[in-house]
Structures are given as C-alpha cells and as structure tokens.
UniProtKB/TrEMBL annotation:
Record-linked PANTHER family: ATP-DEPENDENT PROTEASE LA (LON) DOMAIN PROTEIN
Name this polypeptide is given: Lon protease-like protein
UniProt keyword Zinc-finger present: no
UniProt keyword annotations, A-Z: Hydrolase, Protease
Species of the source: Silvibacterium bohemicum
C-alpha cells in the first residue's frame, strides 16, 4: 500500500498522541489531501543516516488552529505500524510502498504490566520529569504508552517500535527501568542527605 510520509525527529507509537505544527507548503498540501480523503499519513524517524525503515501511521484527530497563511496546528494519534518497502519521491513530499504489521503471540501478563507501570512512574518522579496525564488500563497492553513517555533516546524507542512481541517489548522496558533506577534512587538519596547536613546561621 502507498502512503504519504512525514519524516520527523520523533518515534510515534500506536495509540499515542502527536501535536504538529504544519508550516511547509509541501506538508500543507499533504495534510490537506489527508483531511479531504480522511486518510492518515506515515510518521518515520528522520535520522542522520537516512529514514528509519519502521514507522507508524498518524490519523488526524482534530485541527487545533488554522492560521490565515495556511499554517495548521493539528493533533494526531498513532494507529498502525508499517515497514517501508520502497520510497517514491515523484511529488513534493515523500510517499512509500509499505507493509503493515501487528504484534505476534501473547500479550504481556498482568503481573509484568503492573511491575512495569510502577517502575515507570517511579522513574519519572525521581528523574524530575513532569508526568503528563497517562491513561493506563492494566487490563490491556501498556507497552506502547509507556514507551512513548519514556525518558530514553530515540534509538531505543525506535527499537521498541519495531519489536513484534508485546511480551518482549514489556520485558525490554522493565530492563530499562531496572538499569536506570538504582542511579536515580542514589541521586535522590544523596540530595536528601545533603539537604539535612548542617544549617545556615
């Protein structure tokens, strides 16, 4: 299937939100077509060495602001993952022939999801990262939502996007939290201890 591509310095996951400011003429044209046809477009990570092969489609949920000069503020939601088979650059914006794919096998058990969610929120709190409202239901897979809010580099997020197993992706998240949390806990303890030493006269 052929879709329009929007290369960005982000990794979009299914079921997660993405606000965008559209100001280039080529992307105004692309978004205009998507809105007229009620179709989505593909978001792929733009890397120094080229485009990532795995991306995620974005569906336009609503237009937040329409400027007089044609610029747009829109809010999109990630939908389906795809793998690029062939790029097509005959238009002002990129298009690609893609194959869509889903996870295979079982989803992560609830006990693993609960452990992952607990470590996620502890990580954000200790890292001093403002927690955006995250609607989690532990009755369903949560790995995409956690990965989207993860304080990690885009390379790791790109790896998570390409995994085709919710169990493996959740385990990778757990490993990430367990690797970073001891340092964060030590830092928080040191800060608290130093705050209790002595006092200013």
């Amino acid at each position: 299937m052929r879709i329009s591509l929007f290369p960005l310095d982000v990794v979009l996951f299914p079921g997660t939100g993405l606000p965008l400011h559209i100001f280039e003429d080529r992307y105004k044209e692309m978004i205009g077509e998507c809105m007229a046809d009620r179709t989505g477009f593909g978001v792929v990570r733009a890397q120094q060495e080229g485009l990532a092969v795995i991306g995620c489609t974005a569906q336009i949920v609503r237009v937040l602001h329409h400027y007089d000069d044609g610029r747009l503020d829109i809010f999109c939601q990630g939908e389906s993952r795809f793998e690029i088979q062939m790029l097509e650059n005959s238009r002002d914006f990129l298009e690609a022939e893609v194959d869509f794919f889903d996870d295979e096998g079982d989803v992560a058990p609830r006990s693993l999801r609960e452990a992952c969610a607990a470590l996620h929120f502890e990580t954000l709190e200790l890292a001093g990262i403002e927690m955006q409202t995250l609607h989690l239901s532990l009755d369903e897979p949560i790995s995409f939502k956690l990965a989207s809010a993860l304080p990690a580099d885009l390379g790791f997020k790109q790896q998570l996007l390409g995994l085709r197993s919710d169990v493996e992706r959740t385990h990778r998240l757990l490993d990430f939290y367990q690797a970073i949390l001891p340092k964060l806990r030590m830092g928080a303890y040191a800060a608290k201890a130093s705050g209790q030493n002595g006092h200013v006269m």
